[in-house]
Design goal:
The chain is mostly helical. About 80% of the residues lie in helices and about 0% in strands. The N and C termini lie far apart (about 60 Å).
Length: about 220
């Protein structure tokens, strides 16, 4: 593979990792959503690059679906839900861990991802070598965002980041699955987001809060 192509792969992988860090360092829901939107745009570009390198045309369709659904449709749905909520939640000032601790743990998770990726025997494939640790880092960072946030709405964003990591992981290792399967996966994501939005709306109306700790206290009471 040419040096220019390797540089493009490396730069796009670094950009995707930086965009994922945006979900960790932000505190407002709008900022999280913008970070997820940016991450999805970069992910669509990475998908298109993989399609170009591998020469598989179906991957270009996955790139377009990623761009449309994950960077446009899903943020619009979640924004519409948040605008309809009557409670104040859009800035989460009290996550479980401080910003400094979150950054340190995130850096350790990225290091762990690169270490684990070296244990998978695909050394001759530059696409795997560059993007596999990034996909694993997306998964771990999304999982960390999920457990570190108190509000159910911010946890949904963590789930979306996890899904992006799993999508890239599958794409890197298989170089694209059947187009029908890919369309089905994107349809499942959309249905899941719609159902989650309905549940969030009902939770806010019933309990006047999306704080998971408060909802657990209600269960204990």
């Amino acid at each position: 593979m040419e040096t220019v192509q390797l540089d493009i792969l490396a730069i796009s992988g670094a950009m995707l990792l930086i965009a994922t860090f945006g979900v960790i360092v932000r505190r407002g829901f709008t900022d999280w959503l913008n970070a997820y939107r940016l991450q999805s745009v970069v992910l669509a570009g990475v998908t298109a690059i993989i399609g170009y390198v591998t020469g598989i045309w179906e991957i270009y369709i996955a790139a377009v679906l990623t761009l449309v659904i994950k960077s446009i449709v899903i943020p619009k749905v979640l924004t519409r839900v948040t605008n309809s909520l009557e409670i104040e939640f859009k800035t989460e000032t009290n996550p479980y861990l401080s910003l400094r601790a979150s950054i340190i743990i995130s850096a350790l998770l990225v290091t762990l991802s690169y270490f684990l990726s070296q244990q998978i025997p695909f050394k001759s494939d530059p696409v795997v070598n560059i993007y596999l640790p990034v996909s694993m880092a997306q998964f771990f960072l999304g999982l960390f965002a999920l457990v570190n946030r108190r509000t159910a709405l911010s946890q949904v964003v963590g789930l979306l980041v996890i899904e992006n990591g799993l999508f890239l992981f599958t794409l890197v290792l298989t170089h694209g699955v059947s187009l029908i399967i890919e369309v089905g996966i994107f349809a499942d994501i959309l249905v899941g987001i719609v159902i989650s939005s309905i549940l969030l709306f009902r939770m806010s109306r019933t309990f006047d809060s999306l704080d998971v700790d408060k909802l657990e206290n209600l269960r204990d009471d």
